[in-house]
Every structure is written in structure tokens, then in C-alpha cells.
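Title: Request for sanity check on Peptidase prediction

Description:
We are preparing a figure and want to confirm that the structure record we downloaded matches what your pipeline produces today. Could someone re-run it with the sequence below and paste the raw C-alpha cells into this thread? We only need the C-alpha cell string, no images.
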Amino acid sequence: MLRKTMMRLACVPLAAALAACGSAPVAPGYYRVERGDTVSRIARSHRQSLQSIVRWNNLTNPDAIDVGQVLRVAPPGTARAAGANAATGTTLRSGTASNTPSAGDVPAARALPDTAVPANGISLIWPTSGKLVRGFDGVNSKGIDIANVAGTPVLAAAPGTVVYAGNGLRGYGNLLIIKHNADFLTAYAHNRKLLVKEGERVAQGETIAEMGDTDYDRVVLHFELRYGGRSIDPSRYLPAR
């Protein structure tokens, strides 16, 4: 039974796994993708053009949307969209970035700067120290990569509950997923060792893993931030260095 369960997990994309962990109602002006949905169907049901939905959500491939993904279905700047931003406490429009780091050294864990401006009730700290070697692009990279030596402490970027701890998701190695509230989750991949278990409550800054190279070709922490099941750029919510 355990073997079959692990095989099923290996076939599930991280987006679906994360979406399954958070399915709270979305704010006005947004829509959460359900099984069987297409971008065309969503556009028609919200009386918008296909091109508008693609543009508002920066969809590089309209045929590749995930169950649980949250899409903007109202024009940016409208009352509905403004209400959504106020309700979520964050802005997901393209071209809007704050505290976005360039490649370089991430500060040591014991010298982390103040947390970023809270995003919908959470604020993040850097999850480890090291060199930022890969940024977020939303297509080939759903998060950021921080390189350092094996065994470097990996910290919880915000307080929350561990909802996944294992290596059943292909391509992520030893993986932790932490749920912070109804909308936000963070993921920590390629760890050498996991120090917390599913169901555990963790504090911000608590050591949850050791950096490693499981399912990867170098020692690195791959860090993802998800809002409503959709990957967003963690750099926008991390403090400036």
C-alpha cells in the first residue's frame, strides 16, 4: 500500500499537491481553476476575452493551467480587482516588484534582516544563507535556488504547519511544504535531511532541514512560494539584503 501511494505521489505535480493543501475561497476578481476547466471556458463564464485572461495572468501556455491555480478574471485597476488586492493584501500584476534580489550572497541565518512587508498576514525571512544562483521566471523556475555547502541549516520562512515531508514528488528530492494560512504555502526542496514531520507546527526561523542535493546536480535549496496554489516570485516578499 505504501509503495502504491508513493508511486501516485511521484506522478503528481507540485502545483497540484500545493493546491490540494489550500482551497479557500478566492477574493472578488479572481477564480480558482477546477478540474475540467480551460482558459477559454473561464473567459466565457466571466465574459472576458481569452487574450485578456492570458495577458492578466502572464500565461505562457494557455493550455497548461493547474487545478487549484488562481487566475485574475477582472481587469487590473477595476473596482473588482482593487477589492481583490485589498482582500489578499498583495499585488500579482506583472511588472510590479519590490525587494527583488539580484544574484549574490544571501545573508547568514543568524544575521537575517528584518522581514518583508507582510503579504496577507504573513511575512517572510530568507530560508537559508548562501548564494542566489537562480531566480524565478514562472515557467522553467517556479521558485529561487540558493547554493551553499551540504548541511547548511534551512529555516522556516514563516510560521506554519508542515503539510508534506518526504521524497515522493519527482524532481524535488527531500521536500518540505509548510502551510502558513488559507492562501500561502512555502516549499523547500533538495534537502539532505528533513528535521520536522507532517503535522508539526513550526516557528519562523526554526531549523527544519539541512541543505543537500537530493534529485539535483548540486547542493542547493530550491524555495517556492505559492498563493492559492499558484507559484509567485518569493523575491517580492523577502526582505532586502
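Thanks, this matches our download. The chain has a mean pLDDT of 75.
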